[in-house]
Amino acid sequence: MSLISTSFEELQRREALAFARFATVVSEVSDNARVGDGDWTVAQVAAHVLTVFRRYTERDLTSAEGLSLTMSGVDEQNRVELAAEAHRSLAEVLEELRHQQALMQDLKLDAEATYPFHFGGRIDAFGGWGNMLGELLMHGYDVARTGGRPWPIEPRDALLVLNANFQIMPGVVSTETTQDMEASFEFRVKGARPHTLLVNHGSARVVDSSQAGAPPDVVLGGPAPAFLLNIYGRMSTPHAALRGVLIRGGRRPWLGLKLASIFDTPMG
Question: DSSP states of 105-128 as a string?
Fold first, then answer.
C-alpha cells in the first residue's frame, strides 16, 4: 500500500532537515528537563532517538531479529536500550547521533521490497524512512514544547510519516478490544490517497479504499499534521477536531467515537 508517492531523494532531504531541527532544539533546551508527562529527560529523548537510528544502521533489515512482537515488548526494548546509553553525556549522544544520521543517509534500500517491522508487520523502504522522520518530528515536538518553543510540522512531512503509520497500523490494533467488532474506517487525509482500516473480530488490515469491497462504516477526513499528532497521542481527539479532523460520513458514523479505543497505544 502507498498513501502517497515519494522518492528516496525527497525522504533523505526531509529527514536531514528534521534531524538538524531536532539536534538544535535538543541542544538548546536543558538536558535535565522532564519531557511532557513522561519519565524521560531531554537527554534521554535524544538517547532514545539514537537507539532508533541504530535499528536501521546496525541491523540486518531483512531479519526480524532486534524487533519486538508486542507493544509491551517495544516498551521493554526501549527501556533496555536507553539504559545502555545512561553513561553518555548529551554532548556525546549528539556526536553519535550525527554519526548515525550520516550512516542513515547512506543506507541503501530496495524500493520494491518490504522489510520486517515490530508487531510482526512489514514496511516498505519509503515507510521505513517515514518512520525515522516521525521519530525526529514527534520527539522534537516533545522537546520543543518542554522548552516553550514552536515546532511547526509541514503537511508534506506529516504525509510521509503517515505513509509509514498506515503500513504498521494493523499491528497496534488491540485484538482484545476488537474481538467482537467488524467495522471499516476510511481515512481521507488531505493530500493522500484514501485508505481504509478493516477490523474483523480481532484482526485488522489497511487497504487502498478502492479495494475495501464495501462503503465504509466511518469516514474521517482532515489535514495531515493534525491527523499525525492525534495518531501519535500528542493531540487529543477534541483538539484534532478543532484542527479539522472530523467524522465526515459513513454507514455507521457513530463508530468513529470508538476509534481511539481500538489501538493498544499511540504510535510513538
Answer: HT----TT-EEE-GGG-EEEHHHH
Say if residue 185 is in the same domain as residue 224.
Answer: yes
| Total-model pTM | 0.95
182-189, strands of its sheet edge to edge:
203-208, 195-200, 182-189, 218-222, 246-249
- Do 145 and 178 lie in one domain? The reply is no
Asked which of 133, 157, 181 is the last residue of a domain, the reply is: 157
In a domain, 124, yes or no: yes
CATH number at residue 28: 1.20.120.450
Secondary structure of residue 171 in the 3-state scheme: helix
pLDDT tier at 250, thresholds 50, 70, 90: very high
Name residue, grid cell 487502498. 208
CA distance 250 to 238: 20
- pLDDT for 43-70, tens place per residue? 999 999 999 999 999 999 999 999 999 9
Whether 253 and 216 have beta carbons less than 8 Å apart is answered as no
Q: Can you give the CATH number for the domain in which 234 is found?
A: 3.30.1050.10
| Strand stretches in 118-244, DSSP E | 122-124, 182-189, 195-200, 203-208, 218-222
**Can you give the residue range of the structural domain that contains 62?**
8-157
Q: 235 falls in which pLDDT band (50, 70, 90)?
A: very high
